[in-house]
Write a structure and sequence with these properties.
- The chain has 20 helices and 14 strands.
- The chain is of the alpha/beta class and 483 residues long.
- The strands form 5 sheets. Strands 2-1-3-13-6 form a 5-stranded mixed sheet, sandwiched between helices.
Length: 483
């Protein structure tokens, strides 16, 4: 996501690959690449820092042009559709891919092989970087929701005894959302000075991604890929089915087991609440663990535990209209947002150099340093990001590092990874959802009423955009073959 903070590492660290390279290799003397993304420091600084190392290595230059978040999409889509050559590289949100992919170049084959290629986590390499079987972008930031908890609170003997007496099981990392809510209830009601959990609940504050994480466990059926948001055969909205209702009801319950101001929480407030010792647990992006482990920002440093999201033993089957039951919680994770992508427009006059820079930017060495560099906004997306503990030794204790990196790795390699929605008109769909979601959180409508309104609005939008067009885009976004 866009809210990042990590231990600062000098820009020189991003020149590792250049240290032993021959001057100007490959030689791009006189070539200037223009790259664009959101106003920094997040993501823009990752581009700028990599540009220094790439310039030293190739003798080319990279100019990073930044636009405020609200202006970035219209600026890029306007230049792409006009065939404007202003940008040689665009760094963009995955949700915009359906509108951008017709104008992008395919990644050269030489970058789609070898150890560095296979090091990219499969969900990115095989899904989020791919559109209609073509690799059109390179992930440059990993984004998946995980779980964070207070080790000291969970290992406190009094807490362990009291929890077992009340719930009949050990106080431990939750495997299901039911266990997660029980833990939140316990700390909210039984432990002074600590609230149960923290999530984003504010409209415009990333709220719908947190709802999606609850819903994924119930709506992302392992035998029915791509059916979480829409029926992949008909494009009928699935947002008001029993899986979504259960997810929304539990999301609303979580809001009542959080600090009193939680309805105004965006992800920034989630991080602050956990790092400030207000809550026993939270869900969100990897930033929470990194910020909470930093003693300069946190009161709980040294006690930051991490795990994958809770899941469920029951998953809704939209084809049968029944709940399917599994012996163990289904290994499900949700790719919230999905991680910033870098791509090269067809209108670029420097396509070869732009792809070479993207390869450098996303290389294990350069991207690995970016994951631990303050302000870059880069979370792990390579397997090596989660196995090279030396990178993280200045941030975490050994236990914290093992759990944090294990959670990041396991989340993106889960057996049942749920992909985020990527669809033309994305903002229109999510705006309808946020309006009704906020009303449900405020108690103005029932959860079912809210979801029924969303479903009707989504179906109307699908008709307006063209059902066949939307169905084709949805299937492509979910990695399903064209009908």
């Amino acid at each position: 996501m866009t809210l990042r903070l990590r231990t600062t590492v000098g820009a020189a660290a991003l020149s590792i690959a250049a240290g032993t390279a021959m001057a100007c290799s490959p030689d791009y003397t006189g070539v200037e690449i223009t790259a664009t993304t959101q106003t920094g420091p997040y993501i823009a600084s990752a581009l700028s820092l990599a540009a220094e190392g790439w310039a030293e290595k190739t003798c080319g230059t990279v100019k990073v042009v930044e636009f405020p978040w609200s202006e970035l999409y219209p600026k890029i889509v306007t230049t792409l559709s006009a065939g404007d050559n202003s940008f040689d590289l665009i760094a963009f949100a995955p949700a915009w891919a359906p509108d951008f992919t017709p104008f992008l170049t395919e990644m050269p084959a030489k970058y789609q092989e070898g150890d560095d290629w296979m090091d990219i986590a499969p969900v990115y390499r095989e899904a989020l970087m791919v559109w209609n079987d073509k690799v059109l972008s390179q992930t440059m930031d990993g984004d998946v929701h995980t779980y964070t908890y207070r080790i000291d609170l969970f290992e406190d003997e009094a807490n362990k005894t009291a929890f077992k007496e009340k719930y009949g099981r050990d106080l431990a990392v939750p495997k299901t959302w039911t266990e997660y809510l029980d833990i939140a209830e316990f700390f909210q009601n039984e432990v002074d000075g600590v609230y149960g959990t923290a999530e984003a609940f504010r409209r415009g504050g990333q709220q719908f991604w947190f709802l999606f994480s609850h819903v994924a466990a119930y709506a992302s059926h392992p035998d029915l890929p791509g059916a979480m948001f829409f029926d992949p055969e008909t494009m009928d909205a699935q947002v008001n089915n029993p899986a979504w209702l259960r997810g929304l009801e539990e999301y609303i319950r979580a809001s009542k087991l959080a600090p009193p101001s939680a309805l105004n929480f965006s992800f920034g407030e989630v991080n602050a609440a956990f790092a400030g010792g207000q809550v026993a647990q939270s869900i969100g992006w990897g930033d929470t663990g990194v910020i909470a482990a930093d003693p300069e920002q946190s009161t709980v440093a040294g006690n930051v535990g991490s795990a994958t999201l809770p899941s469920s033993t029951e998953v809704y089957n939209y084809k049968t209209g029944e709940w399917d039951t599994f012996d163990e919680p289904v290994d499900t994770s949700f790719m919230a947002f999905g991680g910033w992508q870098a791509a090269v427009p067809q209108s670029s006059e420097n396509q070869e150099a732009a792809w070479d820079f993207i390869s450098y930017l996303s290389s294990p060495e350069v991207s690995g340093q970016a994951t631990v560099t303050g302000g870059t906004g880069v979370n792990p997306y390579r397997i090596s990001h989660t196995t090279n503990k030396e990178l993280w030794s200045k941030l975490f204790s050994e236990r914290e590092a093992d759990e944090y990196l294990g959670a990041q790795r396991d989340a993106v390699t889960a057996d049942n990874v749920a992909l985020d929605m990527r669809l033309p008109g994305y903002f229109s769909y999510t705006e309808i959802l946020e309006i009704e979601l906020s009303r449900a959180l405020a108690g103005e409508v029932t959860p079912q009423e809210a979801l029924d309104t969303v479903a009707a609005g989504w179906d109307d939008l699908t008709e307006q955009f063209g059902r066949d067009t939307q169905l084709a885009a949805y299937r492509a976004s979910m990695g399903l073959p064209a009908k």
